[in-house]
Amino acid sequence: MQGLLFVASCCGYNTEGFNARDILERKINEVSLSDDKDAFYVADLGDIVKKHLRWHRALPRITPFYAVKCNDEKAVVMTLAAMGAGFDCASKNEIQMVQSLGIPVEKIIYANPCKQASQIKYAAAHGVQLMTFDSEVELVKVARCHPEAKLVVRIATDDSKAVCRLSVKFGATLKTCRLLLERAKELKIDVIGVSFHVGSGCTDAQIFTQTIADARLVFDMGAEYGFNMHLLDIGGGFPGSDDGKFKFEEFAAVINPALDRYFPADSGIKVISEPGRFYVASAFTLAVNIIAKKLVFNEQAGSDDEEDGSDEGTFMYYVNDGVYGSFNCILFDHAHVMPVLLKRQKSDEKLYSNSIWGPTCDGLDRIVECCNLPELQVGDWMVFENMGAYTLAAASTFNGFQRPQIHYVMSRPTWQLIQQIKEDVHLPEADSHNAGGTVLPSCAWESGQELLSSSCTSARVSLNYCMEFLNQPVDN
């Protein structure tokens, strides 16, 4: 049980009838009469559990290896570990963190094709064998530092329709793959499979079909050189929310038949993937507070746009998180964010042109260039949804501004389900100190306030209950 009590000291659980938005509003009410209105997150771990069930319904043959770089919060990692997920690590520190939480080595892939020699040696010393490569230099390095490694050759993809292209940096062409396999044979390094990544924020699911077909060709090449290749890693690129152009199930509808064609279920090929934002984007909601406000007029803002003839100007709102913190996703992940207001807007309420800025002294710290909102005041709150992917993981403390606190919540039925899943996957117990967690006497705590009886810690659910949960809607 101790290994499942994984969340940080701000963690909690909530009963039926509450959701993450309720907790967010309660937190705001708690500080309503105080000047201490720091930005904060509410993270619904139950949303991650639902995403995991949704994954297995849509892609039953594919084992997810969560991309730790997307959001490396320990509560996220342990939630996924409790459900039997694997982990895609890109560095020594990520491997170290995952292993400190009791994750076995067979659940880890060191999926960085360009690794520092000392970090390869670290992986070798700690039993991590599965890793990727895409060049001869990397092969030689691995042969010297980790000759027992099990290698996966990463191939390039057509990621021209992805938001964040990765094949400009990683991946070998089909022609190069033949040379790499020949070199691996000479070095007596075992190549066991193929990996690829269609790019983050992929907008064309059909790319999976072509790249899976390319992977089949590399498997056939491997057989020519005597390699027993039995692992296919289809990478990530899946959407993290349902408000975009494509839904996750649309990708699954393309991937499944491609796998059946090129890697049928009776072929003995294990298929894994490296989803990141799919799991965590919609689970995290960020609340920021307006700390300053300014009215500027067109001539002040340097605008030549006088078409509307308005001299009302534009409101500039300054909030207590910005692009050097959680909103780094705007710069690094091409994210487009828009605020949601807690106050319900009246139908006849006047809207004004606004821009939203972060708290640092850098002029680049702009969150939203232009949006229309009713007039707001210092002390009012803005909420940003779908803020779990590539936000906290890359946040800095520039100008001395600290990262927002995270409040974790989970419904009681989800808590019960995850305990059942944990028992089924036999997760090793993690040390609570290393996990950065507080062992809670109840599954119904939220930030230290007990909402349910502590007797729910001993609750168990039947397989029938799990199946009922699996059949529930998973809309976020």
Automatic annotation (TrEMBL):
Q: Please name the pathway.
A: Amine and polyamine biosynthesis; putrescine biosynthesis via L-ornithine pathway; putrescine from L-ornithine: step 1/1
Q: What is its EC number?
A: 4.1.1.17
- Note whether Transcription regulation occurs among the keywords: no
Entry-linked InterPro entries? Ala_racemase/Decarboxylase_C (IPR009006), De-COase2_C (IPR022643), De-COase2_N (IPR022644), De-COase2_pyr-phos_BS (IPR022653), Orn/DAP/Arg_de-COase (IPR000183), Orn_de-COase (IPR002433), PLP-binding_barrel (IPR029066)
What are the UniProt keywords, alphabetically?
Decarboxylase, Lyase, Phosphoprotein, Polyamine biosynthesis, Pyridoxal phosphate
An example Gene Ontology biological process? putrescine biosynthetic process from arginine, via ornithine
Reactions catalysed, semicolon-separated, are: L-ornithine + H(+) = putrescine + CO2
**Where are the N6-(pyridoxal phosphate)lysine modifications?**
K69
According to the entry, every stretch annotated as the Orn/DAP/Arg decarboxylase 2 C-terminal domain falls at: 41-388
Required cofactor(s): pyridoxal 5'-phosphate
* Gene Ontology molecular function: ornithine decarboxylase activity
A GO cellular component annotated for this chain's UniProt record is:
cytoplasm
What family is it from? Belongs to the Orn/Lys/Arg decarboxylase class-II family.
Q: What does this protein do?
A: Catalyzes the first and rate-limiting step of polyamine biosynthesis that converts ornithine into putrescine, which is the precursor for the polyamines, spermidine and spermine. Polyamines are essential for cell proliferation and are implicated in cellular processes, ranging from DNA replication to apoptosis.
Q: Note the PANTHER family from the entry.
A: ARGININE/DIAMINOPIMELATE/ORNITHINE DECARBOXYLASE, ORNITHINE DECARBOXYLASE
The protein's name: ornithine decarboxylase
Q: Which organism is it from?
A: Callorhinchus milii
